Each structure stands twice: as C-alpha cells, then as structure tokens.
Amino acid sequence: MSEPADADSAALLRKVRILERKLLRSETSRTGLEESKDRADALYRHIIRETQAQKLLLDEKNRMLEALSSKLSKYLAPQVYQSIFSGRQEVSLKTQRKKLTVFFSDLKDFTQITDDLEAEELTDLLNEYFTEMSKIALDHGATIDKFVGDAMLMFFGDPETKGLAEDAASCVAMAIAMQRRMRQLQAAWQGRGVLKPLRMRVGINTGYCNVGNFGSEDRMDYTIIGGEVNLAARLEVHADPDGILLSPETYALVRGKVTAEEWPAIEVKGIRREIRPYALTNFLAEPDTDQIIRSELEGMSVRIDIRNLDDERRRAFQVQLRQIADQLQQGDK
Q: pLDDT tens digit string along 266-321?
C-alpha cells in the first residue's frame, strides 16, 4: 500500500477514536444527567411530602387554636376579646378614665329563693336566666363585665362606643328588653313549679369610671371601678322588683325616648351630689298600672307596688300608715 493511503487510514482511525471518546463522554454525561434528574425528582417528592405533612400539622394546630380561642372567648366580653386578638387592646395593667353608662341588676329575695330550691334546680334556673339576659345584652352591644351570684354588671362606651347619648339609649333599651323577657320567663318558671318568681331590679347610671385591666401581671381582669359604678349598684337596691331606676345623668340623655317619674332624693356613700332618681314607667308590654299606688304632695311622696306586699307586709304597712296618720293628727293640735 502506498504511503498516502496509510496516512489516510491513520487519520480516519484517529477520527474514529476521537468520536468514540466523545460518544463515551456523552453517554457518561447522559447517565450523570439522568442520575441528577432522579435525585432531583426524589428530592422534589420528599419536599412535597414534607410540605403536605407540615400543612396537615399546621391545619391541625389552627383547628386547635380556633377551638381554644372559642373556649377562651366564653370568659371575655366579645368586644374585649376582639380588641385583644386584633391587636387593638394591649394585655397589660393599663386603665383609662372614660364616661360610661353602667348597668347593674340583681334578683329580689334571691337568698330566700336559694333556700327553697335544690342546688341543681337553682343552677339550672340561674344559667337559664343569665343565658337569656346575655343574649339581649349582646344584641344591644353591652360589654358584659361579670356575673356575681345573682347580680350582673355591664357597661356601654368601652371598648366600643356609639357616642354618649346613643350608649345610654342602648343601655336603657336593653334593660327594658330584659324586663319584658323576664315576664315571659316568670310564667314559664311558674309552669315548671317555681312558686316564687325571679324578679329583677335594675339600676343604670352614666358617669366617669376607670376602665381597663386590673389585677397582677399574671392574672388580670378587664373591668370598671369608681363611684359611678357604686351609684348604679345603689340605684338597683332602691329599684322596684321588675323595675328600672335611672340616675339623673342617664335620664337626661334618654328623656325624649322614655317615660319616667322622679323619685325622692337618695343618699349614696361616696357621692356628694344629691341623687334624685327616675323610675321608668309603662315600659312592660302589659303594665300592671292598677297594682301601683302613687301619691305626690309637697313634702311627701308615696309609691306602693301592691304586687310586692304579701299578707304580712300588707298588715305591717297598714300599721305604719296608721301611725303616720296619728302623728300628723297630733301635729295639727
């Protein structure tokens, strides 16, 4: 074979070998790429599984938090609960002075009622009473402060307010709705054998109170304190059963929306000014006007709710009236 032919063969062989090496490297690269792809796919599937597991765990924790949050909300007024969880209200020992309308109520002769009922019956009765009253309170926008025995303390104007006059009107409207609902409950309770009906007394006052978190860094209570709160409680004590007694400040804010009669002045410890309360009238669906005796003269005011007088009290009151009449006759001599 000639030399040119040998040279061509050698050159061709070198090209074949170069091509073989390139193919080998290409195959190795392809194998590496496939292995990398398999590893990436495996990692992706692992991440997806982990993400799904984390999502399931997060969903479960969210459900637990929602359930816990719902349970905790039972111990707080909705307005306070929402302001805390929305970040508008700090959880710290902080108070402020605000003008609020305060509602205070209790049940007449509750101590005697507790003696007449078994503990289980009393518990069911009180829980039903508080449940029905709370529904009405929330419907009218009240901040429910606390239940103490048979008493309820609520207020309007914090943490949310519609304005001083509207807050007072909402509070009075709530009290009227409660007393009307109580009439219905009294009939139902008597039908279940509760012989002595639960009769609610209500006192309402408008004035400046300290409102906020009171207590310690570890245990605090969102509540109100001050002389104006005490005045609402004292008004409740003077109110008639099934009645609503307003302070002059509250009455001034709602006088165009209700009918009321002015009562003689009362003295309240810690309050220097004279308190002449106003009793709402004709606010029940079917008022027993024939059961109320009223007499107003200069220097004298008499108001008798006949429904509150059993035979013994009626006789005692008659004796007192005769004694008053004798004293008046002696004064004429």
A: 888 777 888 999 999 988 744 455 566 666 555 566 667 676 667 777 888 888 88
CA distance 223 to 207: 15
Both tokens of 174, joined, read: 């709530």
How confident is the model over 17-29, as pLDDT tens digits?
A: 777 777 777 777 7
What does the alpha-carbon distance between residue 53 and residue 9 come to, in Å, rounded to a whole number? 65
User: Among all chains, which residue has been given the structure tokens 């009238």?
Assistant: 281
* Cα-based distances in Å from 322 to 271, 299, 300, 309, 326: 35, 18, 16, 17, 6
Q: How far apart are CA 147 and CA 37, in angstroms?
A: 67
What is the assigned CATH class of domain 78-287? alpha beta
- Tokens found for residue 137: 């309170």
Q: Which two structure tokens, joined as six digits, stand for 326?
A: 């004798």
Q: What is the pLDDT of residues 89-129, one digit of tens each?
A: 666 778 899 999 999 999 998 888 888 888 888 899 999 99
Task: Give the CA distances from residue 8 to residues 14, 117, 136, 307, in Å, rounded to whole numbers and listed in that order.
Answer: 10, 121, 107, 132
Q: What is the DSSP letter of 273?
A: S
Give the whole-angstrom CA distance, residue 296 versus residue 323: 19
Residue the block writes with tokens 């009922």: 117
Question: Residue for token digits 């490297």?
Answer: 25
Nearest in space to 150 (alpha carbons), one of 241, 279, 282: 241
CA separation for the pair 125, 128 (Å, rounded): 5
Cis peptide before 159 (omega within 30 of 0): yes
Q: Where are the domains of the chain?
A: 78-287, 291-333
Cα–Cα–Cα angle for 224, 265, 298, rounded to 5 degrees: 160
